[in-house]
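Inverse folding, one chain.
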């Protein structure tokens, strides 16, 4: 029952995050990438903080001082802020489908590597092979089989998407560890969102976009509310709750659902093209992710 609940929560989180790539890609036509990420996280932080206050009654100042002073939480917030900034810049340069696939490649192939570096699990030949398959798939997605596209701006967006995956791979390993030292997922989710807001707010202000980004159109308001309430508020709660029982490496398999949701919605809502080369590259990435995660998932099921 506990395993089934964790799987269901992870599926819900992945579906929400898959849709967020499409909504984010649509929204950046109306607002700059980093201000969008900032305001999205502001909404999400308000929701998560309110939920935490309801759960842990007491002095607000003492509560904030307690949860915001943990070193691991600071690291999570910095990584999350950096990842969100890079993700929306990536979405302004490449398609939602490419971004989602490459982010998930970075997450799923690098989580085991970073976990190995932190001495929580060993690296295997199976994982090395999965990484090679994934990199080939990433190359096909980014170039479309045409190396001349390396000179185009979209390649930068694709490489940024891979770097987002790397940031979140480290984030997953650190979050998995942080959950062992708290009473519940909210005590990680809320301060993580808070530090993310701080990082993105400082970045937006330094870029001169904080004041201007307050004047928002209908499309942007809808996007920010959806992304803040669902992608930050609900999805993070679902994810942390599942991660507590599932562990970082096993959870990465379920995050593959993000790419499937993004590909479907990207074609239906954004008219993004699915070329044979892109589909083949996506298949290689999915095979790589399933290949690297299969053993860990069997251990979780047991």
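Residues assigned per position:
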């Amino acid at each position: 029952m506990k395993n089934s609940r964790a799987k269901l929560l992870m599926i819900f989180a992945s579906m929400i995050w898959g849709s967020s790539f499409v909504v984010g890609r649509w929204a950046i036509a109306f607002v700059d990438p980093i201000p969008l990420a900032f305001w999205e996280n502001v909404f999400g932080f308000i929701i998560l903080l309110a939920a935490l206050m309801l759960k842990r009654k007491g002095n607000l100042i003492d509560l904030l001082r307690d949860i915001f002073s943990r070193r691991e939480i600071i690291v999570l917030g910095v990584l999350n802020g950096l990842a969100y900034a890079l993700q929306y810049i990536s979405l302004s340069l490449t398609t939602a489908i490419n971004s989602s696939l490459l982010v998930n490649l970075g997450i799923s192939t690098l989580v085991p590597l970073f976990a190995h570096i932190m001495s929580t699990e060993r690296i295997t030949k199976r994982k090395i092979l999965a990484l090679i398959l994934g990199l080939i798939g990433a190359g096909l997605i980014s170039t479309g089989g045409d190396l001349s596209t390396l000179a185009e701006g979209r390649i930068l967006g694709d490489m940024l998407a891979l770097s987002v995956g790397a940031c979140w791979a480290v984030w997953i390993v650190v979050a998995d560890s942080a959950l062992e030292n708290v009473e519940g997922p909210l005590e990680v989710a809320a301060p993580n969102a808070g530090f993310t807001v701080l990082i993105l707010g400082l970045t937006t202000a330094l870029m001169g976009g904080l004041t201007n980004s307050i004047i928002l159109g209908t499309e942007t308001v809808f996007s920010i509310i959806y992304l803040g309430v669902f992608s930050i508020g609900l999805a993070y709660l679902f994810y942390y709750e599942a991660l507590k029982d599932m562990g970082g490496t096993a959870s990465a398999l379920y995050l593959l659902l993000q790419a499937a949701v993004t590909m479907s919605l990207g074609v239906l809502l954004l008219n993004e093209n699915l070329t044979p080369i892109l589909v083949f590259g996506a298949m290689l990435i999915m095979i790589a992710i399933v290949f690297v995660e299969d053993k860990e998932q069997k251990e979780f099921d047991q």
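The chain has eleven helices and no strands. Residues 218-246 form the longest helix (29 residues).
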